[in-house]
Amino acid sequence: MTKNVGVALTFDYDAMSLWIGTFGAKSPSMTSRGEFGVIGVRRILQTLDHYRIPGTFYIPGHTAYAFPKSVQDIAAAGHEIGHHGWIHENPVTVSPERERWILEKGFKALDEVAGVRPVGYRSPAWDNSPESIPLLLEYGFEYESSQMATDFEPYWCRVGDSFTMDDPYVFGKPVNLVELPVAWHLDDFPQFEYVVSKGGIIQGVQTPRSLLQIWKDEFDYLYERIGTGLFSITMHPQVIGRAHRLLLLEGIIEHVKDKPGVHFTTMIDYCRKWKEGKTPSLSAEIGQG
């Protein structure tokens, strides 16, 4: 079997926006956890440079204004920068007008700080509202990365899906926006962070070795049994940038880097390659039960 596996290392550079916009932080102690992201980014950039690997960073506008030099360093190193909201707001919790404002505010910040106009989007909290996909199309995005209908294969986003408690699921119309899927077991935050919130306690703080084994096993299944696709993992500089966890990043790189048919990629590069010769269509599995 000829191998053709893309590996995308992605980083959600949330900084303080995660704690303010998602968890409603009032405590300087809580927001200081986001400030550690600056140190994390510096270490990540050093690691990517050492291995000569491209990365994709999803950056809220709030982070760009808080740490402009850090965001400029990411851009100067040639890594992809994607849109990640303004202050890590969940689109489901805001009005359509506010969701539009958030997109525009994020664009403005990334342009003013780093001179970039992202064409890739990742929703804060990995949630999309019913208005999200139409808005992303309107603003010229080529892909989004917040959904979970597949694991290693991109697919076309849809508009017009509908569902109720009483009726069959209705699939909407595929549109010219590629979904590059995500998964919680490929995300470092829920594995490691200890968070006390109104919704309860996230009890992380486990050894990186356990997550490294999950990532290795996930990659090995793709590589050995499927042979082609995208292996994309999600990391946060304030999480993966901690000293002992940086060994996790190095560990997954070492595990995959010398395998024949494996290449490191940005998300936009993989999206554009995947789209070649394709037009929006429903997945072949839909409706087969």
What does the secondary structure layout of this molecule look like, with pairings?
Elements: E1 4-12, H1 17-22, H2 28-35, H3 37-51, E2 56-59, H4 61-66, H5 68-76, E3 80-83, H6 96-114, E4 120-121, H7 132-138, E5 143-144, E6 155-159, E7 173-179, H8 189-192, E8 195-197, E9 200-202, H9 208-226, E10 228-235, H10 237-240, H11 243-256, E11 262-264, H12 267-275
Helix pairs in contact: 9-11
Domain NodB homology: 26-265
Pfam families: Polysacc_deac_1 (PF01522)
Protein name: Chitooligosaccharide deacetylase
Return the CATH architecture.
Alpha-Beta Barrel
Estimated structural class: alpha/beta
Helix content: 40-55%
User: Roughly what is the average pLDDT, rounded to an integer?
Assistant: 94
* Total number of distinct structural domains: 1
Determine the N-to-C terminus distance: 29 Å
| Low-pLDDT residue spans | none
Q: Give the H and E element order.
A: EHHHEHHEHEHEEEHEEHEHHEH
CATH class: Alpha Beta
**Global morphology:** globular
Task: Kindly report the CATH topology.
Answer: TIM Barrel
By DSSP (H or I, 4+ residues per run), the number of helices equals 12
Kindly estimate the percentage of residues that lie in beta strands according to DSSP. 15-25%
By DSSP, the count of extended strands is: 11
Largest sheet: 5 strands, parallel
Please, what is the CATH homologous superfamily? Answer: Glycoside hydrolase/deacetylase
Radius of gyration: 19 Å
